[in-house]
Write a structure and sequence with these properties.
Elements (H helix, E strand, L loop, with lengths): L1 H27 L6 H12 L5 H8 L3 H13 L3 E3 L10 E3 L1 H21 L5 H29 L1
Antiparallel strand pairs: 1-2
Helix pairs in contact: 2-5, 3-4
Length: 151
């Protein structure tokens, strides 16, 4: 049981920290932050059809963090928000430079995921990702029930 607790707490936290550190190191060359990675990645993958609200949902981040990130990306000339509608409903379009960095991020993510799962068979990777999704849903359900219990 101690090993399970260790995996659920220490190892998962360490994975999160390692991912954050990798994002920080990778973005330093562009003068960007780790929080910009998901925004640029999903904007690049969407071909400019996402809004701030969609980014919040996809990235599972709060509105304030996404808003700050988009302001910073806009100031750096990496994206443009259509100001004709409310800002959180405006489609976000990557500039030429934003597309270039988005492509770089996509390629690095693919490469780093390969390195991170080196030695795992494809069937093991699929089972791992399925298990992670199920664990995430189960933990979210537990959280909701605990919230209802304490309300």
């Amino acid at each position: 049981m101690e090993n399970r607790f260790h995996a659920f707490t220490i190892l998962i936290n360490q994975i999160g920290r390692s991912i954050h550190q990798i994002k920080t190191k990778e973005m330093k060359q562009f003068g960007l932050k780790s929080s910009h990675v998901s925004c640029l990645y999903y904007l690049y993958k969407s071909n400019g059809i996402l809004t701030s609200k969609h980014l919040c949902d996809i990235c599972n981040e709060d509105k304030a963090l996404i808003s700050r990130s988009l302001v910073e990306l806009e100031e750096k000339g990496l994206c443009i928000l259509n100001e004709k509608t409310k800002r959180y409903r405006a489609p976000i379009v990557l500039t030429k430079e934003g597309l270039k960095i988005g492509k770089y991020i996509e390629e690095r993510i693919d490469h780093l995921l390969e390195l991170a799962t080196l030695g795992l068979e494809e069937s093991t990777k699929e089972a791992m990702y399925d298990a992670l999704e199920l664990i995430c849903r189960n933990l979210e359900g537990i959280n909701r029930k605990l919230g209802e219990k304490h309300d």
